[in-house]
């Protein structure tokens, strides 16, 4: 399918999210859509996928003007979008998830559906059990199911939003092989929205670059990464260096800790993190590192063992009590767990304060919002709702809500979906917190980030913390083997 975007404009008040964007995409090609956070990528793809209408401009599909008011209408026209978080129902089986929205008859033909699904799985080398429940699948497997649903729904063009975040290297290879088949062999159009330039180089045929809501350039791939970075930012951003700052003072101690939920059990964790240390947690999603962070934040009560913070037993403390003890937790789900849709930046600032009075001083709260917006370079105003911000600006808001000082900072995927300049900027802010003794424990699906940013790394595999390694003495290949269960 050929796609023409002509003079697409979308405004949010005075903010020009898309300011006259025009581009032509041919069938059988894989396109990268690049730009720093807030450049307008997500807005443009939401317009193309029917999530929201444009204020001006038109969309041509195979030279025919097309309009759609919902993602379902867009899919009927051949446009499907694979989101970072798959749109599925975890308590249902794979086959039932596939049927949702595909068949509205009262009596469902399961045998026909099984054959259809198995044909798709075989064609794209996916290995999924039709009777498995979705909540037992990895993120990569859930993506595979969602991809099949879109193709079965008639998608001739696919939009993939940061599809490799949180999936294993093996699943990424399977996904990329499927994308090449879908585009180069089947003639469909694929748009890859990503900040991972190496993946754009590996997969894409051509790239479009947005900057401040405008299309500033396009280029054939492969090309030098430095050229892409310069197009995105106007210059090559300087990287921040991390000077070692580990104080010989235990900040967090875990003694024979066991954490258990109905889906996963993590046993006998013994670990000490020093003041000023950056400690990384490496492992596939669902391997246990997320449970560990939630236990340290007071969100999950350990089954046994002891958690010490500055030598004090905090094992059974609640999340709010841990917050009062200067422990902060930044979840990966920005709107799902970190922010509140429908509340403004100012209202978030009020809620985040460690102490509250009966009456709210709105002038003081607005001044605080203005200060944090400037300090954290958030593209928004005090009365901007959190769900109106771009993903990168939501991430910046999460960090703007953190109080000082902190004893322990727990981070889930701290730079997920951020461009290289925003990533460096966030880590520079985090490094500055170490001077007052803050210990930082973070998990990330990006092994390069784990190695580059950590002092030490704990490796998780299948619910077991298998090893602790010095970041300076390991590499991505070794970490990958350890995560896979190899010694």
Summary, kept brief:
With 487 residues, this protein is of the alpha/beta class. The chain has helices spanning 41-48, 71-76, 94-99, 110-124, 139-152, 169-185, 197-203, 225-233, 289-297, 319-324, 334-338, 345-352, 362-375, 391-400, 420-432, 447-453, 476-483, and strands spanning 3-12, 15-25, 30-34, 56-61, 64-66, 79-82, 157-161, 189-193, 206-211, 214-220, 250-260, 265-274, 278-282, 304-309, 312-313, 327-330, 408-412, 439-443, 456-461, 464-470.
User: Would you tell me the structural class of the helices and strands?
Assistant: alpha/beta
Helix-residue proportion: 25-40%
How many β-strand stretches?
A: 20
Distance between the termini: 47 Å
Shape: globular
* Model regions low in confidence, pLDDT < 50 over at least 5 residues: none
Mean pLDDT: 88
**Rg from Cα:** 23 Å
Enumerate the strands of the largest sheet in spatial order, edge to edge or round the barrel: 6-7-8-3-9-10
Major beta sheet summary: 6 strands, mixed
Percent strand = 25-35%
Architecture overview:
- The chain has 487 residues and is of the alpha/beta class.
- 33% of the residues lie in helices and 25% in strands.
- It contains 17 helices and 20 strands.
- The strands form 4 sheets. Strands 6-7-8-3-9-10 form a 6-stranded mixed beta sheet, sandwiched between helices. Strands 16-17-18-13-19-20 form a 6-stranded mixed beta sheet, with helices on both faces.
- The chain is globular, with a radius of gyration of 23 Å.
- It starts with a strand and ends with a helix.
